[in-house]
Amino acid sequence: MSDMLSAAFITVFITTVIAQAMPLMLASVGETIGEQAGVLNLGIEGVMLVGAYAGFVVTLSTGNFWIGMLAGVVGGVVANLAMLVLNVWLGLNQIVIGLAITLIGEGITSVLYLQNYTKSPASLGQAPKLAIPGLGDIPVVGPAIFQQSGIFWVALLIALVLAFALARTNWGLSTRSAGQKPSSLDAAGGSVMRTRSIAVLLGGGLAGLGGAYLSLITTATFSPLLTNGLGFIAIVITMLSRGRIIIVMITSLIYGLAVAIGPALQVIGFTIPADLIKMLPFLIVIVMLILFARSSVVPPALGSAYTRGAR
Amino acid sequence: MTRLTHGARRRTATRVAVITVSGALALSLAACSSGRGDDSGGGDATSSSGTTVTQFALVAPENESDYGYNQAGIEGANEAAKELGIEVTVVPDAGYDNIETVLTQVADGGAQFIVAHASGYNVGAASAAAAKKVPILIQDAGEDENVPGQIAAAKPEGQEGGYLAGIAAAMSTTSKKVGIVVSADNANWFAMSSGFAEGVYSVDPTIQVLYTSVGPAAYADAAGGKTATEQIIASGADVVFGMGDGATRGYLQAIDGASGVKYIADIGDVTPGLSDPSKLLTSVRWNYEPAYVQAIKDVDAGTFGTKTYPVDVENGGMYLQETDSMTDAIKTAVDTASKGIIDGSIVPTIATSAAEVAAVIAAKGA
């Protein structure tokens, strides 16, 4: 067993943890912003799939991963327009709309993929790496962390900037007010509609970015239902993280660890039932729910449409 | 009387509009669907006793882009139709839900013989065959599942193909470590894995065989497949034997990203999925054509449902794909082993679970 734990093996293990964690982290950050503004987006699974497919198609045709990621963002925003119009603007039920977006996202991406790529399945290859001078040469950790694609660093930066913005800026205060007590935001001269609209579009863009990260970097290809329930895990993580993006990031890493550890244990010689391997990430989420659900706090106005003057 | 605010009136109007549009859509869909399928279709009229099959169908859970099981089934059906000069209708991407309904609709569509191309279809296929009196070829079932005139099984002898692949892997590895990646708890893949390990050990028992599974039914999990393959390569394996349906796309991404690694595919031809085709050592090809042709002939003769249809080395249903990486020495060793399998002097173990595969791997050919 010990001869299996080589530097190369540990490097790949760390790389896998990060690759699995990043799509979830980006989607969860988007969901966090939406939920803090009072919009529960159960359609995140479908939005991620639209982003993943858009990113895949554009990268395949342009050969440029950055443009592909941008397409993922645009795809996510477009997919979330339904939530914006039907929920934020028209006040329809968030749960019903969210589930509809998930089903539509799953269906439309599967149909388009099967229609266009069945006969000539395509792969994207690897995104160009960005080796950070000095740090990239550190044994084991260097190749795993400091020789990632530039997209990884940009995604990480986006998450950190949003963590700061949500906690420390006027925009963040308005966003949280829209979820805590929208009437107060309204009374203070803010626009609940505009605040929630921005949050929903931002959430869609981030979920789309997460989906694109999954198809372009983590998997380097697209297949129907690629997200495999990741969007729903993002919703759970968001609720457990109580609006703190740093906790979202840490929890996403734990998920990545759970995904990576199953195959790793098998390779180093443990005979583990395949069911357990597949269950492990979900088991960890359930355990976290049991441990922390009582302390999770959701915004009081979460899921409620806002109508000025309504009691 | 309740007075509505302006916002509430607007929402009410919107809801009415949404309900109206949804209702119209539902009605139009119902109208469209009423034109599909015909309860008096050809299925009922088809008898398995001495019926000359002029058209048959294959129903598969995925499509040919899996480079594997589905590709082999679809290719086999097309080749069988060509050989017999009859029509075939391929129904790909049928998934695993409501399969009895799908098979019934296919029978109603006029198919005189159906290949239900997944072992997960077996229960639904038995019901559909009994209801519509259409002979259906199921997968991976024993003789006891046969029903004269209605049900018989195609049975791949995966351990034989795996054994040949093991020989090729053992003669190609330089790191003395080879890996197996499977995407599901599948009887065929357990058998191929045990055969593969024994084939490796028949050449060199000191070679280390690593085994990993993506999940119990992760057939289409490309992301999981990539993760598992990357880890098995990182642990030192320089030949990887992958079995995976749609998960194969993930395996191929990992192989593409690695250097000095050879890949052995299963069932189909994965060459189009690799950016560097020289990384393909070989593929354990499954050719369903002989089984389908024989089954259709038996339907014509009225003897369908009295035997199973092997897909094995002896009838050419299982063989290694020729590639530039297959050296003459490997080809000679594989030919010798093939003869041994056919004459019965080599009988690879048929593992039926991951634990049995682990036991074969641990036994090191002892």
Kindly describe this structure.
The complex is a heterodimer of chains A (311) and B (366). Chain A is mostly helical and 311 residues long. Chain A has helices at residues 7-36, 44-62, 65-89, 94-117, 141-145, 150-168, 170-180, 182-187, 192-218, 230-240, 245-267, 274-292. Chain A has a single domain, classed as Orthogonal Bundle (ABC transporter involved in vitamin B12 uptake, BtuC). Helices cover 70% and strands 0% of the residues of chain A. In chain A, helix 1 runs antiparallel to helix 11 (245-267). Chain A is globular, with a radius of gyration of 20 Å. The mean pLDDT of chain A is 89. With 366 residues, chain B is of the alpha/beta class. Chain B is built from 12 helices and 12 strands. The chains are: A mainly alpha (311), B alpha/beta (366). Chains A and B meet through helix 1, helix 11 and helix 12 of A and helix 1, strand 7, helix 8, helix 9 and helix 12 of B.
Quickly give the CATH architecture of the largest domain in chain B.
3-Layer(aba) Sandwich
Tell me the fraction of residues in β-strands of chain B, as a range.
Answer: 15-25%
Specify the number of helices of chain B: 12
CATH architecture of chain A: Orthogonal Bundle
Label this structure with key terms:
heterodimer, A: 311 residues, mainly alpha, ABC transporter involved in vitamin B12 uptake, BtuC, 12 helices, 0% strand, globular, B: 366 residues, alpha/beta, Rossmann fold, 6-stranded parallel beta sheet, 12 strands, disordered N terminus
List the helices and strands and how they pair.
The complex is a heterodimer of chains A (311) and B (366).
Chain A: H1 7-36, H2 44-62, H3 65-89, H4 94-117, H5 141-145, H6 150-168, H7 170-180, H8 182-187, H9 192-218, H10 230-240, H11 245-267, H12 274-292
Chain B: H1 6-33, H2 42-45, E1 55-59, H3 69-84, E2 87-91, H4 99-108, E3 114-116, H5 122-132, E4 136-139, E5 151-156, H6 158-170, E6 177-182, H7 187-203, E7 208-213, H8 222-234, E8 239-243, H9 248-257, E9 262-267, E10 280-286, H10 289-301, E11 309-311, E12 318-320, H11 328-343, H12 354-363
Parallel strand pairs in B: 1-2, 1-3, 3-4, 4-5, 5-11, 6-7, 6-8, 8-9, 9-10
Antiparallel strand pairs in B: 10-12
Helix pairs in contact in B: 3-10, 4-5, 6-7, 6-11, 7-12, 8-9
